[in-house]
Amino acid sequence: MLALQILIDGFAVSALYALGAMGFTLIFGVSGVLNLSHGAIMVLAAVAAWAAASVLHTDTYTGALIGVAVALIASFATYFAVVQPIQQSKRIPNEEKEIFVLTGTLLWGIMIQELIAYFFTNNAKTVLPIIEGVVNILGVRTPKNEIFTAVVCWVVIGALWLLVNRTRTGKAVLAASMNPRGVTLLGLELNSIYLVVWAIYGVLAGIAGVLLGMFLGVSSYSVGPLTASAFSIVVLGGLGSVSGSLIAAFVVGYLETVTAYLISPAYRTIPALLLLVAVMYVRPQGLLGRR
């Protein structure tokens, strides 16, 4: 019975991690940016959805949409206030811009975390679920919201796949991830493509954050573990590899779920980080290689 419980819960957690990591991976694949404010943006989306329902007394659907909208705004703010100024700066040598972007997004994430703690305290916030109730799966009582979370994650991941592979905009994004200079020779604006990618990222992070708030709840303390999990996933899968991130998300999700059930929830992120260290020694390019 415990094994089935771990299987069900691990699938929902892994689907959430996969959704959150998609945008993280997409941004790196296209623009080479590792956004270390990722966890803060996810938590901000969840807290915004919670505040909309608790403070503004909106319905659950409106609250969820507000959460996603806030994440989208935070995504653009990250790009325009932190990433773009560093990338376009003439005072920073090109070989040092990557570390400046890493540091800038990390500090930006800490600022968001502290603002959340200041205005909404460090207490855990749980977003009201869209679907309530419990269903029995082979003897295991499972919240319907947990099933809803996994289904929505996979629907959104499927929609992202269709966008990237079946639309002109998506193909431009895919081309930019393979050969940015070639894209400019075709007459496409890289800045426009970057805006599209950051918009996609904001929506994905927002949906993942709101679903996480409904499923497990979040607080300002969740920022660090969420960023660490996303970073572990993209490195394990191979930097810039979307399929690799999907596989790695399930590895990390199930590792954390098993640890939470068999040892303690307080140590759930440790095995994934240990695996990350091992992979960096044995296969530094990740499971499916870097793109």
List keywords for this structure.
single chain, 291 residues, mainly alpha, ABC transporter involved in vitamin B12 uptake, BtuC, two-stranded antiparallel ribbon, 11 helices, 2 strands, 74% helix, 3% strand, globular
Q: What is the fold's blueprint, element by element?
A:
Elements: H1 2-31, H2 38-54, H3 60-88, H4 97-120, E1 134-137, E2 140-143, H5 144-166, H6 168-178, H7 180-185, H8 190-215, H9 223-237, H10 242-262, H11 270-282
Antiparallel strand pairs: 1-2
Helix pairs in contact: 1-5, 1-6, 1-8, 1-9, 1-10, 2-3, 2-4, 2-8, 2-9, 3-4, 3-8, 5-6, 5-8, 6-8, 9-10, 9-11
Structure description:
74% of the residues lie in helices and 3% in strands. It is mainly alpha-helical. The protein has one domain (2-282): ABC transporter involved in vitamin B12 uptake, BtuC (Orthogonal Bundle). The protein has a two-stranded antiparallel ribbon with strand order 1-2. A hairpin with a 2-residue loop joins strand 1 and strand 2. Helix 5 (144-166) packs across helix 6 and helix 6 (168-178) crosses helix 8. The termini are far apart.
Helix content: over 70%
CATH architecture type: Orthogonal Bundle
- Number of E strands: 2
Strand order of the largest sheet: 1-2
Strand content: under 5%
Sheet of most strands: 2 strands, antiparallel
Structural class determined from secondary elements: mainly alpha
The number of distinct helices, counting runs of at least 4 residues, comes to 11
